[in-house]
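Write out this protein's structure.
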Amino acid sequence: MESAEQLRDRLIAAFPEARVEVLTNPAPVAQHSLILDPAHAAQIATYLRDAPDLAFDYASNVTGVDRPDREIKEKITIKETVDGEEKEVAKEVTRTEPGYLEAVYHLYSMAKRHGPVILRLRTENRTDRVTLPSLTPVWRSCEFQEREIYDLFGIVFEGHPDLRRLLMWDDFEGHPMRKDYVEPDDYEWEPTPHDAFLIKAKRPGTGEEAAPAAS
């Protein structure tokens, strides 16, 4: 099977306007992945499925990832006037790297017996630009897995045939796999709170973790 770099070059040649990047994996398994721009993801997915020598006919696993905003500290050199003399001074600055949500697809070829190829699609942010193209029309096995990601992470898959919650109920608020998700103080699915749930229910709005129940 072609390496991630070879596959990237091949996809860029086939889709010159597409953005395809290799994300390396430093672990011993070295399963590198391809980051695709959402605008061309469906076309590239179809190509990976239909190219006779690739024939990636099976999406075995689709999962979501939450990448919150993070602060990055960097050392920079600036020119300052010190005692009337201009000098280069090293300073540490902090910048914020915007967060995003990610859908990760693991592809295999049952026909050619090779894989995986790992695709990554990223949203623009974690708030109001969380739409990605659904790859269910390309691989039917993505249907329930994209629904799970929508439910737990909040990614909206445009073109999905039946996008609705899978694990949580329709009126559930939020997406419980987000890293900034806060559990509610009352558990409507726990009709008779007990142990740690009862302790937390007695302390509404504190945001504190429930203490272990006494034995």
